[in-house]
Amino acid sequence: MAALSGRLWRRPGEALGRTAAGAVRAQELAERLRAKRSEEEEEEKKKKKQQQQQQQQQQQEVAAEPARRRARELAALQRVHPNVLAKALRQRAVYQDEEVVVLNKPYGLPVHGGPGVKNCIADVLPILAKMLVNMKAEPLHLCHRLDKETTGVMVLARNKEAADRIRLLFKTRQVEKIYWAISVGSPDPAEGIVEIPMVEREVQSHQPHFKMTLAPNYRMSPEDGKVLKIRKNRNAESAVTQYRVLASSSACSLLELQPITGVKHQLRVHLAYGLGCPILGDHKYSHWSKLAPQKLPEITLKRLKLQQSKSRHLPLHLHAYRLSLPLGTSGSKRIDLVCEPPSFFHRTLRKLELDIAKE
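RESULT FIELD:
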């Protein structure tokens, strides 16, 4: 018993030392746990703060970039199922008879397919014909084309014979076309005719690309200011545009345009390079040597409630407003078709205070 008692016996000092050491270790462990918990709480606070900042940033972006949101909405038809697109086009039919179907073409929808094009009008013409008539209907035929970004009157023929007749009317300039456009700046004089040939050229820049441009037959001599005739570009096409200012405000104008000829991008080039008044939202023809967002005057940005850095989201404000053409085999029946501009066009008119009613 004595030996056993001897093994269990400890000196009082030794026991106290061990107890004190254990207390220190326990205190260190507690401090480490508290520090870890504090770090975790701090990390959690940081995450919550980041989430709040992200939410605020997203809300600010949504509030500050209505132009980008509207641009996405305008491009929505490019991503839908062909049946959905055909249904949307059927709802935009403004006139029908035994020869033609007339649509109010939406913004951002290509007429023909191509690289990167998911949906186009040409691809859904058979579906559209069946929706308009019946399942045995012959596919509709394209009679002319509008640019992807152009809205307004578009004529489709119910059969090939009618399509050929209407295409000939366009080719022989028997179709009267009236466009509306909002321009940056105001042409001087307020009405007139631009008659300058056009040609397509490659632009040498950090992003080489092709653009239509002017190919005038005359130029002014820098020495004496005399008008000199230039050798005609054999690739240039004759281009004639009649224009008239309907209203002006906020450093912009509402123009009525009548293309006498039908050259690619004619209205856009004649306005931008001929009159020095590019169409609002025309980022391609607002510059020559580069591809960049359109630069807008301060008053225009203020009225549109838009930052210059967001101007790239502005859509092209060019609308095929009215079209008049003779129909029937003898051309005795003439129809006059009018399509109202889209809501974004009207919204811009209101913001810029371009009051058509006064004119």
